[in-house]
Amino acid sequence: TLRHFSDLAFGATAVVCCRTSPAQKAECVRMVKGRGRVCAMGDGGNDVAMIQEADIGVGISGREGLQAARAADYSFACFSFFRRLIL
Known about the structure:
- The structure is a single chain.
- By secondary structure, this protein is an alpha/beta fold.
- The protein has helices at 2-11, 22-33, 48-53, 67-71, 82-86; strands spanning 39-42, 56-60, 74-76.
- It has a three-stranded parallel β-sheet.
- The model has no long low-confidence stretch (mean pLDDT 89).
């Protein structure tokens, strides 16, 4: 249920949403955003709503195109570069 998911999400350091619709990803960000700042990362057009909803949006350009990178506050060529942002 949504209540059970939100309890788990609020207690976690990170939440990973995969195999969900763009609207569900954005809703997950909205739900967690009420508890603090949220950084959302995506690599395709289906992640744009989530990236734009987050306080900090990170887009990875690559195989799935540039939609996520263009919608983001920060963009990277590959996932491994994200480490420098969070450190």
